[in-house]
Amino acid sequence: MAAPEADRGISPEALSEYCMDARLSGQGGKNMKKAVYPGSFDPVTYGHLDIIKRAAEIFDVLIVSVLNNKDKTPLFSVEERVKILKEATRDIPNVEVDSFSGLLINYASEKKLHIAVRGLRAITDFEYELQLAQMNRRLSNGSLDTMFLTTGLEYAYLSSSSVKEIAYFGGDISQCVPDFVAELIHEKYKPNQTG
Ligand code: PNS
Hints:
Elements: H1 12-26, E1 34-39, H2 46-58, E2 61-67, H3 78-88, E3 95-100, H4 104-110, E4 115-120, H5 123-139, E5 145-150, H6 160-168, H7 179-193
Parallel strand pairs: 1-2, 2-3, 4-5
The structure holds 4'-phosphopantetheine.
């Protein structure tokens, strides 16, 4: 909400509403629109970052949360992924980075979050994402809804697994991830490639 200007003759009611909004926003009040963007982010790609930037323009606070999935062997540990995401989003002030284990609905309930953001690249994502969104809504008794943003066309081809495969074979991933992430990925694969 834009600050009221005294010379426009703002009414006491409007001024009071403005002050209330400003106070609530400043203190993380219940009027703040918050959302969680959950994912594996192993590693974060330009496609993820595009979704993060756009979602951060829609919500007052966007919590990007890394799934700690004990069943998978990731390239980066959860701690590394959190650190990478913090660095990659350092210029977006309303983005927080966190991690979670177990069900997303439980994490969302603990954090009092009611919207999950997910990116849709193509029809191939749709079936899985629809199932996930419907399952989460059902399991949370309607408390957790999902909002989809379509991935920018320039990133439609991107996935964390293809980035890893290209890097594994020594290919160029500079168009897929920020430079510092590309370096970290190549570092991980170096021992395999020099042997
Ligand atoms: O980046 P990803 O791997 O596509 O993200 C998938 C993620 C983390 C959103 C999803 O696997 C998830 O929420 N996992 C947590 C467990 C859960 O809540 N599953 C939903 C019940 S089917």
